[in-house]
Every structure is written in structure tokens, then in C-alpha cells.
TrEMBL record:
The keyword S-adenosyl-L-methionine does not apply. Residues 34-255 form the Endonuclease/exonuclease/phosphatase domain. It comes from Dyadobacter jiangsuensis. SUPFAM superfamilies: DNase I-like. This is Endonuclease/exonuclease/phosphatase family metal-dependent hydrolase.
């Protein structure tokens, strides 16, 4: 039996040097997610003032690892030519960013973005369609693939759906067309412009698990009455969510931010 000990020692030594052991289970990952419609960093009570620092303060107070942002200005007249709000918020929070344009606005771009503390290894942006007979503002999605500390990958995305239910359903179907077959764990945050009992949320519920089913209202910021901002994760992965909170922050935006904690086994 002794003749087998030396090869086994060599095998274990190689694995230790490589930082792994045979069949070593992945360590549970923990992170915090926020979704926030930031109203182009314009506090509703402050006239035309743009206050990027106020939004950053809200984010920094919660210390999320991912943030889904909606209503983000890039290079617009109202928010400052040459100013990229996604880039500004990334700098103020120490995070990385990715922006997806939805529409042209005042000489610049307006859309959605993501922030993350983890390295971005891939990204995707695309427009979400509207029905020809139901014209309204174009919508978009921004998605990144990040590398977690244990080298596993995860997709994180931000979106802002339309005001009309048939458009929202078409947009939801488009999101599933792009991400329905992915085997990576995925988290989606956004302003869905839809309440929990709506058809579009029922559609998402077939493929995603919302971080809460009895979430508190998110608009208006004073005496909120409607729940339209959600965080959800795609079913079929080892993601689990808990401790969803609606943050009572009434100055920085016209929406309340939402946070949720996640584990990935």
C-alpha cells in the first residue's frame, strides 16, 4: 500500500499549489442588489437642479454590489453636456458601469444602466420593441456578465418597461428571447411600470422569482401607493434572495430604491 502514498502526495500538492482540491465545492457567494429609478438625478423638489451626489449618497449608504439604474442621462442639455451620469455614479460609488441608450434626448442619450463592484467580462444592450399601433417612448435593457470572487459568472441586467401593457408584454417576451436559454444565473432589476397583479408580472413569474411577493410600494416617494420596481432572479439556478427592503429616501428621486440580499450556493 505504501507505494501509492507518494503519487497521492504529488496530486494533493499540485492541487494545493493551484488553489483547489479535488471536487472542492464552490464557496457560497453573498451580495446585495439595488434597483433605482433615478429621475435623471433631478430631485423633484429641487426644480431643474441635477444632484448626482444625492443619488450616489443613497447608493453608498446601502453598499450594494449591483445597482440597476433607470432614467439615466448621458450628454444631455438638461443634465450637462459632456456629463455621463452612469460614469459619474460609478466614480462616486467605486463601481464599474455599463449604459444602454433607449432614446435621443436634448442632444444626448437617455436610458438604463448597471453598476457593479465585480469585473465585467461581457455586456449586451438592445432595444425593447413597441407595437406599431401603440406608440410610446422606446425602451431598452442593459446587461453585464460579471466574474464573482470564486470565478463563477453571473448576468445582471437593468430595464425600464413601457407604459402600455401590450408593449410591456412584448418587451418581456423579447427579454426572454435573449436570456431564456442562458445557463448562467441571472438577476434582473428595474422599473417595470406594472403592479404585482398585472399580466406582465404574471408572465415574468413563469421564468423569474421575485425577491418578494408582498413588496412595499415604491411610488410616489411621499405616501407611496404603487409597487412597480422589482428585483427578480431567473429560475433554475442556485440563487436565493431574502431581506427585500424599500428604502425611505424622499429627496433624491421620484421613486424609492429597492434592495435585496442574495446568495449563490
Amino acid at each position: 500500500m505504501k507505494k501509492y502514498l507518494f503519487p497521492l502526495f504529488i496530486l494533493l500538492s499540485v492541487n494545493v499549489l493551484a488553489g483547489t482540491l479535488p471536487d472542492q465545492p464552490a464557496k457560497k457567494q453573498r451580495f446585495k442588489v439595488m434597483t433605482y429609478n433615478i429621475h435623471h438625478c433631478n430631485p423633484p423638489s429641487a426644480g431643474d437642479k441635477i444632484d448626482v451626489e444625492a443619488i450616489a449618497k443613497v447608493i453608498n449608504a446601502e453598499k450594494p454590489d449591483f445597482v440597476a439604474l433607470q432614467e439615466v442621462d448621458v450628454n444631455t442639455e438638461r443634465s450637462g453636456k459632456g456629463k455621463n451620469q452612469a460614469q459619474q455614479l460609478a466614480a462616486l460609488t467605486g463601481m464599474k458601469f455599463y449604459f444602454s441608450k433607449a432614446i435621443d434626448h436634448q442632444g444626448g442619450d437617455y436610458g438604463v444602466a448597471v453598476l457593479t463592484k465585480f469585473p465585467i467580462v461581457d455586456s449586451a444592450k438592445f432595444a425593447l420593441p413597441i407595437r406599431p399601433e401603440l406608440k410610446e417612448e422606446d425602451r431598452a435593457i442593459a446587461a453585464v456578465t460579471v466574474k464573482l470572487p470564486d470565478n463563477r459568472k453571473l448576468i445582471f441586467a437593468s430595464t425600464h418597461l413601457g407604459l402600455k401593457e401590450p408593449n410591456r408584454l412584448l418587451q418581456a417576451e423579447t427579454i426572454m428571447k435573449h436570456f431564456g436559454e442562458t445557463e448562467l444565473p441571472m438577476i434582473l432589476g428595474g422599473d417595470f411600470n406594472a403592479t404585482p397583479e398585472s399580466p406582465v408580472i404574471a408572465y415574468f413569474d413563469k421564468y423569474f422569482t421575485r425577491s418578494c411577493t408582498d413588496c412595499k410600494p415604491t411610488i410616489p416617494v411621499e405616501a407611496p401607493k404603487k409597487t412597480i420596481d422589482f428585483i427578480m432572479h431567473k429560475q433554475g439556478s442556485k440563487l436565493k434572495s431574502s431581506n427585500t427592503k424599500v428604502i425611505d429616501e424622499q429627496y433624491a428621486s421620484d421613486h424609492l430604491p429597492v434592495t435585496a440580499e442574495f446568495t449563490l450556493d
